[in-house]
Amino acid sequence: MKAALAIYDMDKTVTRRATYTPFLLHACLRLAPWRMLLLPIVLAAVAAYGLRLIDRGRLKEINYTLLIGRRVEPERLEPVVESFAERQVATNIMPGARRSIEADRAAGRRLVMATASYRLYAASIARRLGFDDVIATDTKRDSRGRIVARIDGANCYGLGKLDMIEAWLQREALERDAVHIRFYSDHISDHHVHRWADEAVAANAHDRLVRLAEAEGWEVVDWSDRLAEASSRPPRAAP
């Protein structure tokens, strides 16, 4: 029998709202509130991204530098990360997502979070939700062990997310043909992984992904509070 994996995106798939900007603001206010004065430069960087002058990964690095700093000692950042994760799990998780995660766990599936968010805080959120593994955007450390505002490796987004999932499978000694993979995401940027998975689920999806899911025959679910009870149902058993 194949090993069964359930891979979840995080922002707006498991969470109601995105977590990246709230994390930066949360950390800024606790580590160096004066950095809030740099918000106009943050907005300028966002505009540069919108004009395609910088890519998404570089935008992350710039905003991290502006709002958190070039380097931070992990012992200073850890309580900030934990308080942020605690708040997200208490206020920002869709009930339907919780039920799906619990159903996948009860069915014996290995729970994996694959997110473009920083591992710094995504891992803390995932741990609280009972995930077994996390694939995420990593940050570098300097020679003194301080966390720096640079991405270590690739930004876990788009086709890069699929590459990182496949690399994780190799590290875990899991052959693709030997696993059955169910993948959940809300966004069209994850269509590479949806197509690669054995079961693709468009969860809380925006219009473009819903149209693609309908064309491809993928399952579409809505885990928002209003429709979670009607739309969320236990996943089918893996073959």
Explain this structure.
- Helices cover 46% and strands 20% of the residues.
- The protein has 239 residues and is α/β, with parallel strands linked by helices.
- The chain has one domain (3-231): HAD superfamily/HAD-like (Rossmann fold), CATH 3.40.50.
- An eight-stranded mixed beta sheet has the order 2-5-4-3-1-6-7-8.
- It is globular.
Average pLDDT, to the nearest integer? 93
Please state the structural category.
alpha/beta
* Dominant shape: globular
What oligomerization state is this entry in?
Answer: single chain
Class, according to the CATH hierarchy? Alpha Beta
Number of structurally distinct domains: 1
Strand content: 15-25%
How would you write the strand order of the largest sheet? Answer: 2-5-4-3-1-6-7-8
- Low-confidence segments, given as residue ranges, are 227-234
CATH fold topology: Rossmann fold
Number of strands: 8
H and E order: EHHHEHHEHEEHEHEHEH
Number of helices: 10
Radius of gyration: 18 Å
Distance between the termini: 8 Å
CATH superfamily: HAD superfamily/HAD-like
Largest sheet: 8 strands, mixed
Helical proportion, percent range: 40-55%
**Shape-level CATH architecture:** 3-Layer(aba) Sandwich
